[in-house]
């Protein structure tokens, strides 16, 4: 019979702002803005640097994938280009929240005005 070694507690996986930015294909400053507005919940290290829980980031990426797939199925349209859907959706939601106070109709009006 072999001795069981005590399991070391697993530390949560943390990502740097640059790594999170790469996942969502945004600038690292956007990740910092998301942290300030409460979209992301960072861990602040004693050094003052921010880190982001891997579980939270992966959950957001999965939510983006799920909503993109649900919308595509509901509208009977082909899937968007790989990688563009969930990331673009996350950015769009943050822009609507940050710049239009959560009013999607105001964002649409602004886009229509720019296109005309």
Automatic annotation (TrEMBL):
Q: What sequence ranges are listed for the domain Helix-turn-helix?
A: 14-62
Originating organism: Actinomadura rubteroloni
Q: Gene3D superfamilies from the entry?
A: 1.10.1660.10
- One Pfam family assigned to this protein is HTH_17
* InterPro entries per record: DNA-bd_dom_put_sf, HTH_17
Protein name (database record): Helix-turn-helix domain protein
């Amino acid at each position: 019979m072999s001795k069981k070694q005590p399991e070391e507690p697993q530390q949560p996986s943390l990502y740097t702002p640059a790594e999170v930015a790469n996942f969502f294909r945004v600038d690292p400053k956007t990740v910092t803005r998301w942290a300030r507005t409460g979209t992301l919940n960072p861990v602040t290290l004693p050094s003052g640097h921010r880190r982001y829980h891997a579980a939270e980031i992966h959950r957001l990426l999965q939510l983006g994938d799920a909503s993109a797939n649900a919308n595509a199925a509901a509208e009977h349209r082909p899937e968007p280009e790989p990688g563009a859907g969930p990331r673009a959706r996350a950015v769009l939601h943050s822009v609507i929240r940050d710049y239009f106070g959560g009013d999607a109709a105001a964002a649409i009006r602004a886009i229509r005005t720019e296109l005309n």
